[in-house]
User: Fold Quinol dehydrogenase NapGH, periplasmic component NapG from Campylobacter volucris.
Amino acid sequence: MSNRREFLAFSFKLLCIGSGSAFLASLAISSVQGYFLRPPGADDEKRFLSKCIRCGLCVKACPYDILKLATLQEKPANGTPYFIARKDPCRLCEDIPCIRDCPTDALDRKYLEQKDGIYKTKMGIAIIDSASCVAYWGIQCDACYRACPLIDKALKLESKRNDRTAKHAFLLPVVDHEVCVGCGFCEKVCITQKPAIKILPREFVLGEAGNNYIKGWDEKDEKRLQDVNTEKKFDKNKAKDYLNDGELL
Assistant:
């Protein structure tokens, strides 16, 4: 009788452990899917996670209640702050209270020391789906453009001939990736059912050219060539030796 009870108790424990593991696994899987936006100053996710102590002081400091702390069932790491642009964009407070009250520098304090530092932060970047944006259909809409705190800087309107009608012009929103801070105002006001303009983490969408290329029109970048020997020296024998040594076989 005791053996039967022990067996049932052991089986029940295994069932509980298995159910719990499956639940935690499902949470882990769901937590890494999708994307999320961090507060100002959390430019580098690895740096941010290494310094954030999940204290919630940045959330309390936000005067507009935009920031929230992630739970186990949400995408960001549990207890870390984030916001959802479509629901409530960052208001770009000039005194940046979320950074000011962060005790560990997880939200980089360098922006507090810079003039208009909030406009130098990089929370994300606006990406336009031209297939869904009605402005690209020829319907006049400049909602995102008008809402942008950096109007004519981060978000501009470009006019283009409408070849389909030959009578009207397109007024197309265009994002300057170097200026956009990712506040989310454009996504918030987008008139389409699902926003045709979204704020995504910069590492999701931006590439990197590397140091092999020089911007000839940029004086600062061109200075990298000052100490570079641009004279090419060709060794004809080297090519012959390479072919004759049989290294290609």
In short: The radius of gyration is 27 Å. Residues 2-32 form the longest helix (31 residues). The CA atoms of residues 35 and 154 lie 22 Å apart. Strands lie at 68-69, 81-82, 125-128, 155-161, 169-175, 197-200.
